[in-house]
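Technical annex, item 7. During the second reporting period the consortium partners agreed on a shared format for inverse folding records so that results from different sites could be compared directly. Each record opens with the tokenized structure and is followed by the designed sequence. A conforming record, contributed by the partner at site C, is shown below for reference.
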């Protein structure tokens, strides 16, 4: 690692002030990506701003027809929450399938979506459910939040405080996991929401995206059979040692049908 300073702010306001005064500072949430990056000397921040002491950023609550989860809430807490299990079981199952026990007890939902790893699980839930990402400055709709590979709509020094998930009529997440990392080779989140059907895909491309043609097919008939013969183009999909673009395109169709069948 390169040398850096370490700050553990006592409030969100303190954290925001520190970031405003130092453009080279980095926010530390769970550290699942940032710490390995530092160890490999691929990043050289002037200081780390550790949000671990900010209890106001953790917690799970139901607010009417919305599930609200603090940005610093650990994956394991989402997976084991009775509130999540009752209100949005698909999200609990997703959280329970992230990485291993060590990752689930350190990683945070906010850190996951801000990092926007193209194979991460949580972005598919945020986009698939049409969630709202709340920061210290504003509210950002899921459709506007993820902008590209490891990129989001967050501005310099902006901190995510919570994610608000509107509760769907029904939903499911199915992924084809990498056997070593448990990252999604492809993962598909299907949700039948009050505003229509949403299908979000992670792992397949440079970032999470919606499968519009699948949404249209399921809007007409929310059955696995509605996706018979449905295909997704391999253009612009990832191709690596784990799976070719063509295979990922095939998996999108297979996993979408399995998600719908699971719901049914």
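Designed sequence (site C submission):
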């Amino acid at each position: 690692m390169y040398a850096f300073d370490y700050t553990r702010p006592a409030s969100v306001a303190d954290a925001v002030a520190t970031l405003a005064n130092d453009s080279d500072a980095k926010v530390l949430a769970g550290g699942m990506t940032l710490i390995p990056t530092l160890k490999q000397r691929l990043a050289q921040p002037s200081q780390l701003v550790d949000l671990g002491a900010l209890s106001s950023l953790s917690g799970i609550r139901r607010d009417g027809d919305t599930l609200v989860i603090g940005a610093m809430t650990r994956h394991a807490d989402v997976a084991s929450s009775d509130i999540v299990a009752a209100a949005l079981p698909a999200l609990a199952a997703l959280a329970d399938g992230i990485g291993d026990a060590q990752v689930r007890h350190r990683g945070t939902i906010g850190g996951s979506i801000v990092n926007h790893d193209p194979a991460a699980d949580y972005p598919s839930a945020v986009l698939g459910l049409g969630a709202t990402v709340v920061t210290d400055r504003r509210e950002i709709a899921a459709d506007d939040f993820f902008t590209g590979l490891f990129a989001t709509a967050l501005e310099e020094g902006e901190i995510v405080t919570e994610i608000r998930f509107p509760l769907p009529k029904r939903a499911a997440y199915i992924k084809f996991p990498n056997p070593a990392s448990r990252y999604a080779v492809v993962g598909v989140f299907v949700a039948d929401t009050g505003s229509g059907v949403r299908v979000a895909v992670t792992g397949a491309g440079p970032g999470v995206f919606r499968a519009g043609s699948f949404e249209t097919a399921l809007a007409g008939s929310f059955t696995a059979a509605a996706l018979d013969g449905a295909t997704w183009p391999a253009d612009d999909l990832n191709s690596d040692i784990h799976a070719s673009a063509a295979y990922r395109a095939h998996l999108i169709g297979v996993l979408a049908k399995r998600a719908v069948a699971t719901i049914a």
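DSSP finds eleven helices and 14 strands in the chain. The chain has a mean pLDDT of 96. All partners now use this format for quarterly exchanges.
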